[in-house]
Amino acid sequence: MTPSKKLTFSRRSFLKTSALAGGGIIIGFNLFNSCKSDVKPAIDLSQLNYNDFNAFIKISPEGKVTIFSPNPEIGQGVKTSMPMIIAEELEVAWEDVYVVQAPLDTANYNRQVAGGSQSIRHGWTALRQTGATAKQMLVNAAAAKWGVDASECSVKEGVISNAKGETFNYGDVVNEAATLEIPEEVSLKDPNDFTIIGQGKGNVDIDRIITGKPLFGLDYKVEGMLYASVLRPPAFGQKLESYDASAAKSLPGVVDVITIGKKVRAYNEAGNRNWSMVMSDSDKVVVIAKTTWDAFKGKKALKAVWKTDTPLESTEKHDEILNGLLTGKEFNTRRKDGDVAKAFANADKVIERVYESPFLPHNTLEPMNFFADVTDEKVNLVGPVQTPESAQKVVADLLGRDIETVSVDMTRMGGGFGRRLYGDFVYEAAEISDAIRKPIKMVSSREDDMTTGVYRPAIKYRIAASIKDGKLTGYHLKEAAVNSNMYGLIPNFFPAGAVENYQVDTANYRSNITTGAWRAPYTNFLASAEQSFFDELAEELGVDRVKLHMDLLENVKNNPDPKIEYSPERLQGVLKLAVEKSNWGKSESGVYQGLSVYYCHNTHVAEVADITMENGIPSVKKVTCAIDCGIVINPLGAMNQCKGGVLDGIGHAMYSDFGFSNGVPQSNNFNSYQLIRMGQTPKVDIHFIENDIDPTGLGEPTLPPVGAAVANAIYKATGKRLTKQPYMSNMNVEEKILG
Amino acid sequence: MPTFNLKINNETHSVEADMDTPLLWVLRDKINLVGTKFGCGIGQCGSCTVHVDGNAMRSCLLQVSQAEGMDITTIEGLSENGDHVVQQAWKEVDVPQCGYCQAGQIMTASAFLNNNPNPSESEIRNAMHGNICRCAAYNSIEEAVKLASEKLS
Ligand code: FES
Ligand code: FES
What we know:
The complex is a heterodimer. Chain A is built from 20 helices and 30 strands. In chain A, helix 17 packs antiparallel against helix 18 (568-581) and helix 19 (635-654) packs across helix 20. Chain A is an alpha+beta fold. Chain B has a 5-stranded mixed beta sheet with strand order 2-1-5-3-4, with helices on both faces. Chain B is α+β, with helices and mostly antiparallel strands. Helices cover 38% and strands 15% of the residues of chain B. The interface between A and B is large, with 69 and 61 residues. The complex binds FE2/S2 (inorganic) cluster (2 copies). One FE2/S2 (inorganic) cluster sits between chains B (96-102, 133-135, 137) and A (75, 365, 415).
């Protein structure tokens, strides 16, 4: 191993070590403080205990290494990949590492949130430093025992050797190491010497998953726990007027029927409503029962009367409103380069298209659920939530408790896709248990989950481009969305910087339907719209699709705009790789190809879809996907994530639809809502660009581009441009894919 | 409430439940076998798949009263040590993403391969079509079923 770079950091800002009472060392770090370098917590080793710092690494005198994975696991593999980073720098064999989910300790964990594909990106350097520091302390301890200089020692797989060939296992020196100063300076490995990062490592929970061990929120139970099923307003815009629980109460398994909602209303009325509080202000009726089934049955037996509180909305109405916004004048300009109006006025030709997408529920396969046990002294919350930190705080405020008395433990999550960023189900569980002072688990049925969701909002884009002398001179994108608009730097994504006259405008309509983040927010449809439009534009310009893109990206290279965070070189790189690996333009007869290139979540992706037509129905056969996400930490996990993103993207672009009528969702289970199934799936062929750039996210970036790749391929096969998702409903073909 | 005697994973369990209680909830809430998962409750997703007399069945649709006298196997009873050939294949391919659907996928695949140890690609795709994987780990699931069938032959 050749150390590549010496790295100095202020240890006092984020690292702590302690000897363990039973022997061994525990090393923790505080990323939270490392972000604020002026904060220097006093370190008094004698005062430290396990709970104080929630260590990332524990090494026992037997040499056993336990790594506490700090990030919630929703299927994106961080429970495996984050410990891999530590183990790499710690120089231990992966087989000797035991990984456990760390409990919530917000004081010591930075960004304990799984979302936005950012977990790895934020943790990368700090996790490496932690591993490297731990290794250095063990080496220093061994060197001191031998009376040699630490630089004469080397480490391989948890065994320290000196020049004479003597060895110590890590376990032999942990107790000494625990008493040493934390080194100010450590070396990080050269990525070329990585032995764990870049190697495919299986999911750390694999044995428990394939044998059906309790792992998920829905599996968690304690002695005496009751089950709660919540009746919420059936339509957005309704509130509870009255209810009759007599039939429900007469059922043998039903223990009690109560209402909740007051706490949430009081919290909101006090002006505390925050982003995670995406729930109706109505009272809700809760059936408490001995089993989940008893609770579901009890809920069905309730008779409730609802009153209309705010207008009941429908899909037709949304279409009308969003179309009105697109043709209207009220916009928020998000980026403006040059003068699009002038470019359009001087154009030889202007092309303009409208692209439309529906609301979408998340449909995590594990429905929303949460455990709460509220007693006079404390509040104990357990379950699948992507934002434990905010859940803890809101519940403390909601119930008027000190935050120290509220604990949140995370379980493995049966999918997230953005849904579990919101805490509505945690707050409901807490309010229920607070009312009856018993441990309960709130369990949503699939119908509850799908009809009281936090949906991806319906969005429409109007894209117009001006062509002058065979060149693209202007690009104007307008977004009309329900509730909120594209955020952050999205208006500065491609083709910002590539077209002289460029403008992005947004407008929105406030609806009473709850909406929120859904895997790759905004870009999940924006990419489809934009990359379909470029396909049409290339045709209009009479230029090869790949060449058009390459040339436009060339323009960006001379554009020093700090807001443009995508790299034209890296986008060109993935485009080239996808073209090469997919045999672009050389497909056999009857196979039609479509291309799409996109940057989001700091990752650059190009995809080519191969389709065939079978009885007039498009069938996606293969998707070639080239990705530049920097260093790939766990290729096995990364591959899974990327393939899943592509197939998820195809499924929702092609099949999934979700509308409203009089405020009521028009689908409520998988018999009326289509999710992609195996028979609809192509083979996904993933290729990573190899480089040494710090890693970026993988949970989301492969999803957005694929819709356009498929639509562009369908155009080649049928001559029909698809602009409205789901594409299958828009093709006048019937395909039943329900189970 | 009536009592039912159920034979699950070669053990007899005596449970009190309403006649119409789906086997799924008896397994999960009364017998503590939580490996069988709830996804839809209406037979559409396959998360709750168990073996009944060797055939893959959706436990959310099977009432406890109908399950008496049948030989029921859940994911917990598929093998002694998690070493059923399908489980091994799942591990080798590293199939799971969130993992929630996987017990159901494994139960469907194992019953299918029992009847058809050497299936074609389209037979595999048809057999697995009823099981939803929301994480869309379909490529890996398909690969693992194929690998398991190769191990069998
Ligand atoms: S829960 Fe039984 S098929 Fe979905
Ligand atoms: S692995 Fe998540 S639902 Fe299949």
